[in-house]
Amino acid sequence: MLVGLCLVVLGAGGYLAARETSLFAVSTIEVRGAPPGVAAEVRAALQPLVGRSLLKVQREDVERPLGRLSVVAAASFDRAFPHTLRVYVRAEAPLAVLRRGSEAWLVSAAGRVVRVMPNPRLSSLPRIWVPRAASITVGAVLADEGAGRALRALVPLRGLPLLPRVRDVLADGELTLVLRSGLEIRLGTARRAPLKLAVAREILPQLTPPGYLDVSVPARPVAGPKPSTRR
C-alpha cells in the first residue's frame, strides 16, 4: 500500500510539473478539415495558446475564440504530444450571396452571414435580395424572414446541377427561382419545396426559356412561354 501511495504521489507530481513547465508547451497548431483560408484564420485565432502546456488547454480555450469566427461552423481538438494542438474544423458551406443594394455578403447553408463580399459579380452563387432597411451582421444568422425562406429553398439543391443555374431567389410573398436563362421556377410557399424542385427538374429539359414553370401545386405543374414581369 505504501508503494502504491508513493506511485500515485509521484504520478500526480509529474502531471503537475508537466502542466506548469514547457515540457509539453504548444508550438504547432495543426488544422484539419478546413480550406487554406479558413485554416489560416483558425491558427491566427488560436495563436495565444502557443507556449501554453497542452495539459492546460481546455475545450473552452478553443471553442471561445473559434466561436467568434463566422467561417467556422463547428470545431473540436486533440492533443498530439509533445507540442502539437490538433484542431478539427467544419467550415461554413457558402450557398448564396445576400444583396442589399450595392452591398453584398456571403451566406452559408445554415443561414450564417460569413463575410462581406467586395466583388459580388465575381461569384456564381445565387443572389438573395433584401430591403435596404434590413440589418445585416457578419457572424449572425439571417434575421430577415424573406431571405431566410429564400435560402431554405436553395438547400435541397446543394450538390445538384440545377443550383449553378439559379441567378436570383425572390421571396416577395411567394418563392421564385430565376434561372440564368431567364426562366422562372415559381414555388409558391416553402412548403414541400424539395418535392416541387424534384418536379421542376423533371420538366425543365422540355422547356425553352424565357418563360415560367409554376410548381406551386406539384401535382399540377403549369408552364408558359410568356416572360415574367418580375426582376
Brief account:
26% of the residues lie in helices and 29% in strands. The chain contains five helices and twelve strands. The protein is of the alpha/beta class and 231 residues long.
Characterization of the model:
A 9-stranded mixed beta sheet has the order 6-5-4-7-8-9-10-11-12, covered by helices on one side. It has a 3-stranded mixed beta sheet with strand order 1-3-2, covered by helices on one side. A hairpin with a 4-residue loop joins strand 5 and strand 6. It has helices at residues 2-20, 36-45, 59-67, 145-154, 193-203; strands spanning 28-32, 72-80, 84-91, 94-100, 103-108, 113-116, 127-129, 166-172, 174-179, 184-188, 212-214, 222-224. The chain starts with a helix and ends in a 7-residue tail after the last strand. By secondary structure, it is an alpha/beta fold. It has 2 domains: 2-91, Ubiquitin-like (UB roll); 94-224, Rossmann fold (3-Layer(aba) Sandwich), CATH 3.40.50.11690. The protein has 5 helices and 12 strands. It is 26% helix and 29% strand.
Helices and strands in order:
Blueprint lengths: L1 H19 L7 E5 L3 H10 L13 H9 L4 E9 L3 E8 L2 E7 L2 E6 L4 E4 L10 E3 L15 H10 L11 E7 L1 E6 L4 E5 L4 H11 L8 E3 L7 E3 L7
Parallel strand pairs: 1-3, 4-7, 7-8, 10-11
Antiparallel strand pairs: 2-3, 4-5, 5-6, 8-9, 9-10, 11-12
Architecture of the largest domain, CATH level 2? 3-Layer(aba) Sandwich
Distance N to C terminus: 83 Å
Strand content: 25-35%
Strands, count: 12
